[in-house]
Amino acid sequence: MLMNKVETALVNSPPRRWLQRFYETQVLLRFGGRVLPGARALEIGCGSGYGSQLVLERFGAARVDAVDLDRAMIERAGRRLARYGDRVRLAHGSATDLRAALDADDGGYDAVFDFGIVHHIPDWPAAIAEVARVLAPGGRFYFEEVTAHALARPIYQRLFDHPTGNRFTAERFLVELAQHGLVVLGSVTRIRGDYLLGVAAKPVPDSE
Ligand SMILES: C[S@@+](CC[C@H](N)C(=O)[O-])C[C@H]1O[C@@H](n2cnc3c(N)ncnc32)[C@H](O)[C@@H]1O
């Protein structure tokens, strides 16, 4: 589900960008560290591309592919990220079908980033399944999510558009990660369970 005008303005506002750069990034780095040199990263629901900029500059990815369901956001991201040249590839499509959007192979990415997008997807478990599929063994999933607690608040209901059913709590989100074989390295909730930040890893299979 796409953002409405109010959410678009809020998500792209200077306070949110400040929070993302100076708080969320620090928490995610504490749990998951920087990616390995040469890492290929994916950002799902990239919006206007600020997260992909952080993925390159702060998390240390060599390249980032970024996908969003909203063509207008992809255009904005294209303008923001043009300076990175062929280190960035943008695609229109859904995080629930990364093969269609990006021709993404199994295990094709060393890291996947979710800056507040999975709660926009009605079939959000399908997006988690895709994250688990495209991560390479040893790869990491960095997530920042808005939970059912926040979405139920009157202010959220009045101002924003989100799927009305199949919402997740922080606990339910973490259970879904485990069901897809992802091991949580660290996570934290904020504002009475409204927000969830964390990092999960796809285990490397034991060698025989
Ligand atoms: C709250 S915004 C976050 C945008 C960006 N990650 C940021 O932090 O600025 C959610 C984004 O998810 C996108 N989105 C919604 N459903 C999607 C889907 N199924 N696949 C990919 N992107 C989706 C929206 O178009 C929107 O850009």
Automatic annotation (TrEMBL):
Name this polypeptide is given? Methyltransferase domain-containing protein
Checking CDD domains in the record gives: AdoMet_MTases (cd02440)
Question: What taxonomic ancestry is recorded?
Answer: Bacteria, Bacillati, Actinomycetota, Actinomycetes, Pseudonocardiales
- InterPro entries associated with the record: Methyltransf_25 (IPR041698), SAM-dependent_MTases_sf (IPR029063)
Q: Which residues form the Methyltransferase domain?
A: 42-139
Sorted UniProt keywords: Methyltransferase, Transferase
Source organism, top-level taxon: Bacteria
Any one Gene Ontology biological process term? methylation
Q: Fetch the Pfam families from UniProt.
A: Methyltransf_25 (PF13649)
Q: Which organism is it from?
A: Amycolatopsis arida
- GO terms for MF: methyltransferase activity
